[in-house]
């Protein structure tokens, strides 16, 4: 498994990197068969350290966790506990579904854009109807069943997930509704 451990405007020592690799390795070996890579980013927000971890599995699913603490090791330990909980739930769901995926999830290329939010008041009109693009990047759209898409969305903690439906050859969307239920858009 490949590890990428970085710090945003803080220095990450070799002792912390070794601790992160050992702890993540023990968590991942317990619950996931074939992880491909792990990204861990440390940053500082006011008086707290923030740890964000992402683990990509060979099945195409991604587990993410984020934690805050006053000490950097404590932030990582909390993040590691959240990651372990997600991977344990993921493994339990796979056992519950009794479905063996013989091949990894197929991914399609797509463009993702981040648009600037409006900072103007409700009464004033914008100068132009074209939004300002803050960032443009490549993203992957997985080919999943609806159940796997809901599981991936919950694992990632995302409010919405766009995926290519395995049963049909079209793009679908699952999202968390305001009432707490999951919505599924199948055009």
From TrEMBL:
<dbReference type="InterPro" id="IPR036567">
    <property type="entry name" value="RHF-like"/>
</dbReference>
<feature type="domain" description="Sigma 54 modulation/S30EA ribosomal protein C-terminal">
    <location>
        <begin position="130"/>
        <end position="183"/>
    </location>
</feature>
<keyword id="KW-0963">Cytoplasm</keyword>
<dbReference type="InterPro" id="IPR032528">
    <property type="entry name" value="Ribosom_S30AE_C"/>
</dbReference>
<dbReference type="InterPro" id="IPR003489">
    <property type="entry name" value="RHF/RaiA"/>
</dbReference>
<comment type="subunit">
    <text>Associates exclusively with 100S ribosomes, which are dimers of 70S ribosomes.</text>
</comment>
<dbReference type="InterPro" id="IPR050574">
    <property type="entry name" value="HPF/YfiA_ribosome-assoc"/>
</dbReference>
<comment type="similarity">
    <text>Belongs to the HPF/YfiA ribosome-associated protein family. Long HPF subfamily.</text>
</comment>
<keyword id="KW-0810">Translation regulation</keyword>
<dbReference type="Pfam" id="PF16321">
    <property type="entry name" value="Ribosom_S30AE_C"/>
</dbReference>
<comment type="subunit">
    <text>Interacts with 100S ribosomes.</text>
</comment>
<dbReference type="Pfam" id="PF02482">
    <property type="entry name" value="Ribosomal_S30AE"/>
</dbReference>
<protein>
    <recommendedName>
        <fullName>Ribosome hibernation promoting factor</fullName>
    </recommendedName>
</protein>
<dbReference type="InterPro" id="IPR034694">
    <property type="entry name" value="HPF_long/plastid"/>
</dbReference>
<dbReference type="InterPro" id="IPR038416">
    <property type="entry name" value="Ribosom_S30AE_C_sf"/>
</dbReference>
<comment type="function">
    <text>Required for dimerization of active 70S ribosomes into 100S ribosomes in stationary phase; 100S ribosomes are translationally inactive and sometimes present during exponential growth.</text>
</comment>
